[in-house]
Amino acid sequence: MSVGVLCIHGFSGGPYEVEPFTTYLRTYTNWLIEEPTLSGHGEELQMRGFTAKHWLMDAELAFRALAKKVDEVIVVGFSMGGIIALYLAKRYKVKKLVLLSAAAKYVSPKQLVKDFKMLATEAYHRNLSNNELFLRYRHKFNHVPLSATIEFMKLVRMVEPYYKDIKIPVYIVQGKLDGIVPYHTARFLFDQLTSNEKTLYLSDTGKHHICYGEDCSEWFSNVLSFLKSS
After folding, report:
1. Bridge partners, residue 99, by sequence
2. Are 118 and 42 in contact (CB under 8 A)?
3. Where does the record place the Serine aminopeptidase S33 domain (predicted)?
């Protein structure tokens, strides 16, 4: 039986946010991995004019295209992508869900900007000046219009009523040191979902970009075992 994995990145980000995990999946499976870039996102941010509806449609089109090629579809969502993953699970036949730093609780636009700036000062690796992730985020601070942030908040509000309707197996990964999504958000999400099979992994050292965390090799293998289990 063929398996496809749809990986959805976060707000103002791109597929690079989940790249370590997708690389791992490609190494240890023969699954078809798709990583769409949402409208206005990616390496060069052009977010003005795009709305939550655009991002949901991007994800729906990517899901439909992948579903035509495989027998089963797994959806992985990072940050805002986690909320979009839940939206897809409500509307389509999704085999399993993986939610990474899922933004189930939004913050005010001012706080979001403040947190992004705080993120820029954190050293994900020792040599911050050469850290590709840091450089991407430093670039985005001046390229995320307030209108886009408001659309992100709309998306979170729109999908929240769906949580109780999600009954498929789900694996939630959340860093305790996340400066964007408070880690207790993961517990809220875990409690809201009505799946009989659900797991919550809390990383003691994980920040928002959980796929770049110190302990990612541990939860990568845990998630893969979850995805392979019948």
Report:
1. 77, 172
2. no
3. 40-211
Closest CA relative to residue 198, chosen from 229, 160, 168: 168
User: In the block, which residue shows the tokens 């796929």?
Assistant: 211
Two tokens at 13?
């980000």
Distance CA 64, CA 193 (A): 24
Alpha-carbon span 142 to 44, nearest angstrom? 12
- Give whole-number Cα distances, 26 to 18, 55, 80, 184, 205, in Å: 12, 25, 23, 31, 25
If 0-12 CB within 10 Å is exposed, 13-18 middle and 19+ buried, where does residue 222 land?
Answer: middle
Decide if 175 contacts 210 (C-beta within 8 A). yes
Round to whole Å and give the CA distance between 77 and 173. Answer: 10
**Model-level pTM?**
0.86
Q: Which spans in the chain are helix H?
A: 19-28, 52-67, 80-91, 109-121, 132-140, 146-159, 184-192, 216-228
Mind listing the pLDDT tens digit for each residue in 98-129? 999 999 875 544 555 555 555 555 544 444 55
Cβ neighbours of 128 (radius 10 Å) = 15
Please state, in angstroms and rounded to a whole number, the distance separating the CA atoms of residues 116 and 157: 21
